[in-house]
């Protein structure tokens, strides 16, 4: 199909647009990502609870000037939403981090290389003890949490696939922002490693949620009936995720 002159001009204008703009409110400047969307019907702003990113979405036919004016007019809204975001927690010595919803403290145990493990300090507080050079503390804690997540998810998936009689092909760990898990038609299951920070029943539920897709690749009434049959705490886990799920992304 031959492209019209208008289409060529519109595409050229879109390609020349910046990826981000700065929106000022009082004495603070906020970095806002621009997102053109063919599905968008209006200009909208969103502040991600997971990453803190501010996104300005706009339909294909809306001018950049109009979208920027909209964002500037809502500078106060952006500021208030950003102010409500939970504080980020770096995975460093002394930082608190939940493990299976139990508070732990990260402790740089020794500069001598050794395994990361859970233990208790002199006061009886649960800690994640990390050995090796201090600059690798965050990396070692993240790797430890991912190993724990994989172990728990592997056990949960094995239980639910046995109950359903449908084998999974592979288990992958991700750090996705928009979903906690997914299932492909080939039987590959993917999960966010951050589920290890949540109560065990939440991780268990997500394993059941994706395993149930091995039987029904949709969210039909039949799918939910299968899920609730193998996982009675579905509603309880869903409620916890709605209230607290975004907080799991605080840990950087």
What's the short story on this structure?
By secondary structure, the chain is of the alpha/beta class. It is built from 7 helices and 11 strands.
What is the topology?
Blueprint: H1 5-15, E1 20-25, E2 28-37, E3 44-47, E4 54-59, H2 64-73, H3 75-84, E5 96-99, E6 102-110, E7 117-120, E8 126-131, H4 137-164, E9 170-174, E10 181-183, E11 188-192, H5 200-212, H6 221-230, H7 234-244
Parallel strand pairs: 2-4, 6-8, 9-11
Antiparallel strand pairs: 1-2, 3-4, 5-6, 7-8, 10-11
Helix pairs in contact: 4-5, 5-6, 5-7
Question: Could you explain how this protein is built, in words?
Answer:
This protein is an alpha/beta fold and 252 residues long. The chain has 2 domains: 5-84, no CATH class; 136-250, Metalloproteases ("zincins"), catalytic domain (Zincin-like). Helices cover 37% and strands 25% of the residues. It has helices at residues 5-15, 64-73, 75-84, 137-164, 200-212, 221-230, 234-244; strands at 20-25, 28-37, 44-47, 54-59, 96-99, 102-110, 117-120, 126-131, 170-174, 181-183, 188-192. It has a 4-stranded mixed β-sheet. The protein has a 4-stranded mixed β-sheet with strand order 5-6-8-7, covered by helices on one side. A hairpin with a 4-residue loop joins strand 10 (181-183) and strand 11 (188-192). The radius of gyration is 23 Å and the shape is globular. The N and C termini lie far apart (47 Å). Residues 1-12 have low confidence and may be disordered.
């Amino acid at each position: 199909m031959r492209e019209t002159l208008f289409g060529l001009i519109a595409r050229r204008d879109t390609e020349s647009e910046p990826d981000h703009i700065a929106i000022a409110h009082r004495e603070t400047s906020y970095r806002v990502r621009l997102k053109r969307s063919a599905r968008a019907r209006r200009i909208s702003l969103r502040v991600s609870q997971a990453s803190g990113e501010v996104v300005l979405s706009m339909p294909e036919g809306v001018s950049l000037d109009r979208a920027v004016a909209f964002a500037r007019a809502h500078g106060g809204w952006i500021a208030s939403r950003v102010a409500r975001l939970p504080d980020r927690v770096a995975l460093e010595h002394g930082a608190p981090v939940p493990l299976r919803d139990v508070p732990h403290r990260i402790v740089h145990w020794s500069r001598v290389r050794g395994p990361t493990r859970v233990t208790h300090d002199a006061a009886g507080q649960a800690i994640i003890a990390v050995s090796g050079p201090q600059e690798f503390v965050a990396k070692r804690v993240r790797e430890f949490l991912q190993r724990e997540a994989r172990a728990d998810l592997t056990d949960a998936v094995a239980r639910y696939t046995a109950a359903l009689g449908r084998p999974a092909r592979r288990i992958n760990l991700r750090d996705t922002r928009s979903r906690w898990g997914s299932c492909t038609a080939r039987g590959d299951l993917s999960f966010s490693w951050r589920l290890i920070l949540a109560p065990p029943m939440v991780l268990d539920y997500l394993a059941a949620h994706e395993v149930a897709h091995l039987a029904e690749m949709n969210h039909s009434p039949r799918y939910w009936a299968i899920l609730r049959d193998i996982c009675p705490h579905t509603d309880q886990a869903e409620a916890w995720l709605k209230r607290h799920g975004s907080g799991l992304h605080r840990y950087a």
